[in-house]
Write a structure and sequence with these properties.
This protein has helices at about 20-30, 60-80, 100-120; strands at about 30-35, 35-45, 50-55, 85-95. By secondary structure, it is an alpha+beta fold. The chain has one domain (about 15-120): Ribosomal Protein S5, domain 2 (2-Layer Sandwich). Helix 2 (about 60-80) crosses helix 3. It starts with 18 loop residues before the first helix and ends with a helix.
Length: about 120
């Protein structure tokens, strides 16, 4: 098995890790709803993007929830280089997200992030 090359990992500094970070974003962040996700975003002063993912047990069992998180992380990994401003982003999955493919997740989340950025200006 070959290790991923630089830039393909999801380092700890690129994640939201504390409950307080999620709560701050929930309270102060811009909220965009899509069919299968709620995306919260807010500019940060860290100099890089950070991602948090929430998938509740109402969406499915552990295997299903982990698959959704893998898809969202893969979308984020591919799009992270395309963003110019540093942001904290939380993606909350809704019911029905377990049926999506990577291309559908990409289409939906990309639209939400673009819409969220236009609202922040």
């Amino acid at each position: 098995m070959e290790l991923s090359q630089g830039g393909e990992r999801f380092p700890k500094r690129g994640r939201l890790t504390k409950r307080s970070q999620y709560l701050t974003l929930s309270r102060d962040g811009k909220r965009v709803h899509t069919s299968h996700f709620v995306v919260l975003s807010q500019a940060n002063d860290m100099g890089e993007n950070r991602l948090g993912i929430t998938v509740t047990t109402r969406v499915g069992n552990a295997v299903t929830r982990n698959r959704i998180k893998r898809l969202v992380r893969e979308f984020y990994r591919r799009q992270d280089r395309d963003t110019s401003s540093a942001q904290d982003i939380v993606v909350i999955a809704k019911r029905g997200a377990e049926k999506l493919s990577l291309s559908e997740v990409t289409e939906e989340l990309l639209g939400a992030l673009i819409q969220g950025r236009s609202r922040q200006r």
